[in-house]
Design goal:
813 residues, single chain, 24 strands, 8-stranded mixed sheet, alpha+beta
Length: 813
């Protein structure tokens, strides 16, 4: 133990004697370790942290699966009420099996009206999660019945914000969607089910009519496996139930299966590839930093040849010398780890602040990202391992000096093996840097291509906001459509407003709805196999407000009322797919027959509009069917207002006009259309930015590495260069000599890196738009950039070599 502390004290003294070397090494390691710590903190919180429920590994989600038109299978489809009830009744694999849905509520009667996102939830959900309320109780089976008294459970955040954290709120009445509800409980802090968006829970309370529906799929599930039952056993049992239901109800359940997946696996399904990719990128940066510091260590070891030779001559064993050198490298890495920890704290704040809204609200654990004990342990482990990794090769090289040469020649000993190792490290740096640079280059080119995509509408000066009028006050479709029509009419008359309209689901909203149809006059497909298309309801003037071109026919008009002919507008992809050789305007569509339901009149196509990017700028064109809001009467709508100037300037006007029509009606989720487009591409923008930063750091480290090796070589070959120049070598000859060495290492590194990039970039294939993973232009451009940086790094020591005075060099030696 005494020798160990002696090594540490001696190591500190040696590092303090070389402040330039120590600072350079610590900065390089801090960059690599800090980046790894920041990304690992995200991985730790999102992928590794267990859900805050009892035995979370026994919690599962049950999805329906169904075939899609493109031949693939949808693996995450919501359950229909009737199917879920059959699963729940017949399965023996679960302790508890609950279901929930999403809803929005207008909270009125206390201060200003507020719109709140919540979840109609069955009693089985709380039983499956086994979470106890902070105050009161949760939803019980007797609450979850049609006609039962209305009750509500509040989130901790809503309780604190709206009710001042008063425990006596339990038992009080609050008004939601114009209906009185009794508060029966408050959930504890940190309970974010099913997402951070959720602020309250009401009973699911399926009606008798809803319990019989198999064609409507809108229920999400959570279940708790019985002790000793595996996911595979549950999957086998539920698959058998699904097969029986398919035979019993072929009209609605044809080819529909069941997929059982763990809660943890499902929650990270979309974010896991992104996080692992980022972890790999920062891992590359750390390896480059290690190679850089190893080169510094080799150079420093070369300058200590005489010292090490003397220690060996005095009886120090090779292991003793190696231990001392490894101790110094670990001390360096621990110092770098400390600096990296400080950088990681800053990096985590940037990651959280720059994360897209879907990640912050729907990715479990994102809001809890921080430097906890596991992250600190990771940083310590990475620091120690890094110190050993970059210190091992220099220690092995330095601990076996040629004593005769070292003692005789001092610092100008034989360095052939050491130079080969230094060159190999530089080649590795260049290769790893090229892989990162190619990946970043592809993402940047892809993102720029994405920004050039026209979404099918004009987002300039458009502000949007959501509204939901309560069905308890607006009791039928006519009253609902009249409210929205009056609001839009008032807004169009306001100064600063160019146009206004409403639509149920806005482009770039991340939400969708579908419907099925039959073309009148054509043979009807088998029941349950009717074509399915995207479905939207919009008010007259919506296409004009969004500047979506009407290619043929007309837009909706106020004359398209509930008591007139049903009409529809389709997009160009719909027209091409279902009417390839004819004009769809004037053709009629039928609704698929429903059991025990009166058939609706046919729907006439009155117009064709341009395609719109709904799910993102990289969205492929899909068929859309629009119907007039005056004939649909949806309660939940999005208000679209095009301003004559700054869209923010009309927001107070909209709020005023809404409250003038209904003092209890809030508007919410107010955003410009440009912001919504940015939100949909935020994840790709974030990945592009992070890869770009990592690649820039790698490029700088690689340039420093090349410069260090060439500068060291020039310094070691000063005597040789002096002799060459004394014998007649010209300055240009010396420059070519130095550049040849540096560029040869670069060319080898680029060649190796191109092979690695060709394989590694396949991981980006699904994230790219308009660019292939093996895009030749990107590979060539990145190679040239890296070669240019390497050339610049070589030119500085080459110019120094050109200025060597032969007389001074020979006299010095």
């Amino acid at each position: 133990m005494g020798n160990f502390f002696q090594d540490i004290r001696y190591g500190f003294r040696m590092l303090l004697k070389s402040p330039g070397f120590t600072a350079a090494a610590v900065v390089a390691l801090a960059l690599g370790i800090g980046a790894n710590t920041a990304i690992f903190s995200v991985v730790n919180s999102v992928l590794l942290r267990p859900f805050p429920y009892e035995d979370p590994d026994r919690l599962v989600i049950v999805w329906e699966t169904n075939p899609m038109a493109n031949g693939e299978t949808m693996l995450r489809n919501e359950a229909s009420p009737a199917n879920w009830l059959d699963w729940k009744r017949e399965t023996t694999a679960f302790e508890e099996f609950g279901a929930f849905n999403w809803n929005t509520y207008n909270l009125t009667g206390t201060d200003a009206p507020e719109h709140i996102v919540g979840n109609p939830t069955s009693a089985g959900i709380f039983a499956a999660l086994k979470v106890k309320p902070l105050h009161g109780r949760v939803i019980l089976p007797e609450d979850d019945q049609e006609g039962a008294p209305r009750v509500v459970v509040l989130s901790h955040g809503l309780w604190q914000r709206r009710f001042g954290g008063d425990p006596s709120v339990v038992g009080q009445q609050i008004t939601l969607n114009n209906n009185s509800h009794t508060v029966v409980g408050v959930m504890p802090q940190g309970f974010e089910f099913p997402s951070a968006f959720s602020h309250l829970w009401t009973p699911l309370a399926l009606t008798q009519r809803a319990q019989a529906r198999r064609g409507a799929h809108y229920l999400y599930t959570r279940a708790r496996l019985k002790p000793g039952v595996s996911i595979g056993q549950a999957q086998a049992e539920l698959s058998a139930i699904a097969a029986r239901l398919e035979q019993q109800y072929p009209d609605t359940n044809a080819q529909r299966g069941i997929r059982v997946v763990s809660l943890n696996e499902d929650s990270v399904e979309t974010t896991k590839p992104l996080l692992l990719l980022m972890l790999a990128a920062v891992g590359f940066v750390l390896l480059i930093a290690c190679a850089n510091v190893a080169n510094l260590m080799l150079a420093r070891a070369a300058s200590r040849q005489r010292e090490i030779a003397i220690r060996t001559a005095l009886g120090a064993s090779r292991w003793r010398v190696m231990r001392q050198l490894l101790t110094e490298s670990v001390l360096l890495s621990l110092a770098g780890g400390t600096g990296g920890l400080l950088l990681a704290m800053w990096g985590v704040d940037i990651l959280k602040a720059g994360a897209p809204e879907p990640m912050t609200n729907f990715v479990y654990g994102w809001n809890q990202i921080g430097l906890d004990a596991r992250v600190l342990l990771f940083t310590l482990g990475v620091s120690v391992v890094t110190g050993i990794v970059f210190g091992l090769a220099p220690a092995l090289q330095a601990s076996k000096p040629d004593m005769n040469e070292s003692l005789k020649e001092g610092e100008r000993g034989s360095t052939g093996g050491r130079n080969r190792l230094r060159s190999a490290l530089v080649v590795t740096e260049v290769a790893l840097s090229l892989v990162l640079l190619v990946g970043a280059g592809l993402m940047i080119r892809s993102f720029l291509r994405l920004l050039d995509v026209h979404p099918g509408f004009d987002a300039t000066n458009v502000v949007t906001m959501h509204m939901q009028v309560p069905s308890s006050r607006y009791r039928n479709a006519t009253e609902v459509s009249d409210f929205y029509a009056r609001l839009v009419g008032r807004l169009r008359e306001q100064p600063g407003v160019e146009s206004a309209a409403v639509v149920n689901l806005l482009p770039m909203s991340g939400s969708g709805a579908t419907t099925s149809f039959i073309v009148e006059g054509r043979p009807a497909p088998p029941t349950g196999q009717e074509p399915e298309v995207n479905y939207r309801t919009s008010a007259p003037g919506y296409f004009g407000a969004m500047r979506i071109p009407v290619a043929r026919g007309r837009d909706f008009t106020p004359d398209d009322r509930a008591d007139t002919t049903r009409v529809a507008v389709v997009n160009e992809t719909f027209a091409r797919q279902f009417f390839p050789d004819e004009d769809p305007v004037g053709r009629r569509l039928l609704d698929p027959p429903q059991p025990n339901a009166t058939p609706l009149p046919p729907m006439e196509i009155v117009g064709v509009v341009g395609d719109v990017k709904h799910w993102g700028l990289d969205d492929k064109p899909t068929p859309f069917l629009y119907v007039p809001h005056t004939q649909a009467g949806d309660n939940f709508m999005t208000l679209v207002v095009r301003a004559e100037g700054d869209p923010a300037s009309v927001i107070p006007t909209v709020r005023r006009e809404v409250l003038a029509l209904d003092k209890d009606q809030p508007v919410f989720d107010i955003k410009t259309m440009e912001d919504r487009i940015a939100d949909m591409s935020a994840q790709k923008r974030m990945l592009t930015y992070l890869l770009g930063v990592m690649a820039a750091v790698a490029l700088v480290l690689a340039g420093i590495g090349i410069y260090g090796v060439i500068a060291y070589t020039v310094a070691r070959r000063t005597h040789e260069i002096g002799i060459r120049m004394a014998l007649g070598a010209q300055r240009g000859d010396i420059m070519r000599l130095v550049l040849r060495q540096g560029m040869l290492m670069t060319i080898i590194g680029v060649a190796v890196g191109l092979g690695g990039a060709y394989l590694a970039t396949r991981l980006l294939d699904k994230m790219l738009y308009g660019v292939t993973a093996t895009d030749p232009a990107t590979f060539v451009a990145v190679s040239l950039v890296l070669a240019s940086v390497a050339l610049l790094a070589c030119l500085i020591p080459a110019r120094r070599a050109m200025k060597v005075d032969p007389m001074v060099a020979l006299r010095y030696e």
